[in-house]
Amino acid sequence: MELPEEIQNMIEKRKRAFSYYTEELVGEQGFIADDKTILLDAVIALSLGKNILLKGPTGSGKTRMAETLSNLFGQPMHSVNCSVDTDTEALLGFKTITQQEGASSIEFIPGPVIQAMEKGHLLYIDEINMAKPETLPILNSILDYRRMLTNPLTADVVRAKETFGVIAAINEGYIGTVPLNEALKNRFVVIEIPYVQGDKLREVITQESKLENESMIDRFVQLSSDLLVQVKSGIIPEEAASIRALIDTCDLAVYMDPIRAVRRGISDKLEEEREKAAVLNIASTLFN
């Protein structure tokens, strides 16, 4: 990946800042995409101190992208997995009573947001549009030029270190998600992560699954392509074409009939019988 010299220097500066960090980083440089500019643009944006919003269907590699960025920058990452139950404490931390030398005291345990800010690490907010809209505005001040917040649990002002960065991910249109507030979305650079296909998908399967039979891998690549056609036609839902589900199915196909593997890994996850039948019909044309 060719980078402008200035951006490369910024990355090296971050790596030097975290050279003391002895624990293993979250991920490896394993993100693969048909469009090489996806990773390149994410690296440039993060180097410039921009917040990144990864936007794409489930199983398209958004988390892998975040882990790859963590590895590229040599920078540890703290994660928040959002849900309808995500509240201020899940983001910022919580108070607890501790005992020291027989005396009780109240101690604040910092959450992922505070830890990432204070240490200058990366913060990954997964499925940010699953959180209740009233919870997220607390993040506004850390996502703009201020890079600080007043902790409502302690009244302390927390200022982020220079290397602090934010990566968020969303799956749009899924059950339980809500549209992001425009003020929040406007604080991000948006990068689309589509499903990988063709030779790049073959590379992903080879790298991440147990399946080694090249002929079988080719047929699973074709299965993915055919499923995407059905998704675009509205016949099956987007999650049926999930690359994550495809990798699971490839693993299963090492030890069982591939059509049975497709049933366990893909079709049985769907709700409608017609959707299940559509997936199995495609599989039967490829694996019989």
Shape: globular
Low-confidence stretches: 22-27
Mean pLDDT: 87
Report the order of strands and helices: HHEHEHEEHEHEEEHEHHHHH
CATH class of the largest domain: Alpha Beta
Distance between the termini: 41 Å
**What count of structural domains?**
2
Number of separate strands:
9
Main beta sheet, described?
Answer: 5 strands, parallel
Please give the CATH architecture of the largest domain.
3-Layer(aba) Sandwich
- Which percent band covers the strand fraction? 15-25%
Q: How much helix, percentage-wise, in residues?
A: 40-55%
Query: Helical stretch count?
Result: 12
Q: If you compute it from the alpha carbons, what radius of gyration comes out, rounded to the nearest whole angstrom?
A: 22 Å
Major sheet: arrangement of strands: 2-5-8-1-9
Describe the structure.
By secondary structure, this protein is an alpha/beta fold. The protein has two domains: 5-192, P-loop containing nucleotide triphosphate hydrolases (Rossmann fold, 3-Layer(aba) Sandwich), CATH 3.40.50.300; 198-287. It is 42% helix and 17% strand. The chain has helices at residues 5-17, 37-47, 62-72, 88-92, 112-119, 140-143, 182-185, 198-208, 214-232, 243-253, 258-265, 273-287; strands at 51-55, 77-81, 93-100, 103-110, 122-126, 148-150, 157-159, 165-170, 188-192. One of its GO terms (molecular function) is ATP binding.
Task: Give the SSE map.
Elements: H1 5-17, H2 37-47, E1 51-55, H3 62-72, E2 77-81, H4 88-92, E3 93-100, E4 103-110, H5 112-119, E5 122-126, H6 140-143, E6 148-150, E7 157-159, E8 165-170, H7 182-185, E9 188-192, H8 198-208, H9 214-232, H10 243-253, H11 258-265, H12 273-287
Parallel strand pairs: 1-8, 1-9, 2-5, 5-8
Antiparallel strand pairs: 3-4, 6-7
Helix pairs in contact: 8-9, 8-10, 9-12, 10-11, 11-12
